[in-house]
């Protein structure tokens, strides 16, 4: 990768479920404080780092990438000392079997496992049953009385996985959306904008775009661009190429629509023009379902022009999410070029 792999690794391996993004917030503030004119947080935990425009400072652009990852909250401790979980974000329960996790209490982090009964003891009904999150328990390997003393309802649970290069891809547990948070940080370090840019690291996206909706009111930008991952179903299990959405290695994805938003045509056309002018590889994204912070800004404080740049991602919402290194670099380059060429004079009204 052209960009800083060590920073991407730190961001993706750090833990932060919706509403508890503290560790990510610390990294973001550390990385941006020397590159912006002002940095602040709000009562929800959103981080806003502002670079004042040199030519047209009254025109404001908001760039948003979310800090939170999907995870769980402890909802019950059984008499035997096992933990029952409530979801924070969308999980496919099939990927939870035999995974290592960390339970985060106010005092400490505790290692745990989500066990799976051995096949030797499963009858035919068990083998054919459909997994549900409520069927899984976290085993801390501790006596019940010690678990009761150290863990409480409301403590958070995250998956354990390191981040590494696998071939030309970078894979880890929370590429969604830390790889785009990384993209935003890298662009913030490079831009010299004519207009004012608010680089916003948002909270609670995975549970309903909550941070972006609140931030859209507080900032009231003239233009908003969200950064998130998108589906890359270019894998053997998907036979119809029309269902790929995007493909790894084909460049940054310029979003046309998803389940929550139809982006402003003038915004996404300008993104395409910038990409072609700067020779940045790109592809177009039409995502049938799912939502991003783009929708959080579109009409929160009146109608706003919105756009989105996505990074293609295989195996989304698992612990082995994978992005291509060239797509990451392309997304950083496209965002940087788009911001450096925004002068506040573009007419995005329809």
Automatic annotation (TrEMBL):
Zn(2+) 2 binds at residues 176, 206, 317. The keyword Transferase does not apply. Its cofactor is a divalent metal cation. Signal peptide: none annotated. InterPro entries: Peptidase_M42, Peptidase_M42_aminopept, Peptidase_M42_dom2. GO terms for biological process: proteolysis. Keywords: Aminopeptidase, Hydrolase, Metal-binding, Protease. It comes from the Archaea. It holds the Pfam family Peptidase_M42. Zn(2+) 1 binds at residues 66, 176, 228. The active site is at residue 205. GO terms for molecular function: aminopeptidase activity; metal ion binding. Gene3D superfamilies: Peptidase M42, domain 2, Zn peptidases. Binds 2 divalent metal cations per subunit. Belongs to the peptidase M42 family. This is M42 family metallopeptidase.
